[in-house]
Design goal:
It is found in: Cell membrane. The chain is of the alpha+beta class. The chain has two domains: 2-144 and 272-362, no CATH class; 155-243, no CATH class. 59% of the residues lie in helices and 16% in strands. The protein has a six-stranded antiparallel sheet with strand order 1-2-3-4-5-6. Helix 2 packs parallel to helix 5, helix 8 runs antiparallel to helix 10 (308-335) and helix 8 packs parallel to helix 11 (340-362). The protein is elongated and about 90 Å long.
Length: 364
Amino acid sequence: MMPAFFPSRTVSVYMATMFLTRTFSVLAGLVLILMTLDLLGKSGDVLAYPGNGQAQLWTYVSLRAPQIVSTFLKFSVLLGTLITLATLNQNSEVIALKSSGLSAHQILAPLVVTGMLVALLSFLFNERVVARATATLSAWEKVDYGPMPSGPGVLSNVWVRDGEDLIRAGHATGRGRATRLEDVAVYDRRDGNLGAILTARTARFDGAAWRLEGAKRFDVATGSVTPLGTVRAAAGVSPDRFTLASVNPDGLSFTQLYSAIEDLEAAGRPTQSLRASLWHKLSGPLSAVLMPLLGAVAGFGLARSGRLFLRAVIGMALGFAYFVADNFALAMGNLGAYPPLLAAWAPFFLFLLIGEAVLIRTEE
């Protein structure tokens, strides 16, 4: 039954190849242009750090390019769909397919299946490449494009408040009791005034307080520095306040974000906005499946009627309307106005129904 729903194997492969070729050609052009513009704006910041040069610029490109690919892949799928269907319509190939007895859904079937493949590749690319590149680039930006901290899960420039005191950790690694802080500074404040600054090379949590190693105390009033060796400070400040101080969902894979949400819930913190981002990691790549349906209006109708361009504009408008609705729903989910599942999945199913309604109304 399923093979009978598709056109012949030759036609299906022909349409899928056209679709993939045009999609990734558009994506390559967008990435090249946008990466050039982004590099022009950021190269000054990267080169501002002493010692940075061409190697660091290429490092920035390698970290930023995956983000651009992930962001604009769905736009490329939409444009690839419109170009493919408009070309088939212009060459009267759609008319030939319909005259052979195929319905509009059967004509679109190869593109939808190919969109599923693109969605799977997009998900795997986001999980394996984009999440790591985003986390690394975020950490690099926090050190002003200086030497990057090594190791997975490294957080940079983390600030925590303990009553009136402020605690800064240059780097934080690990989870739970295994959390390790480096380049630590404790700002001792009383009645809104800074009294002393306690600095240390490293700090570890011993279950009740933090053991600061190589500690020094700077007294603001006298200006004197006193070596203290190993001391205990910040009693009651749990490790999760450093490691979960700022969870960037874009810098975590699906499984890592799920684990972070569980840790936050165990610590009694709100996780609704992160759950919306978690489910959007699944619904986002699936937008590639919607694009052939939303852009289908460009593939049907008589090309000689002079309305092919108008149909292409309508298909593009439907696609961009989906992107606007998707971003709006995700923003509402991050604010807590929408439930996480609704924020992540409502735009997908809404425009799935809209695309089906337009296709059935005009062609079926």
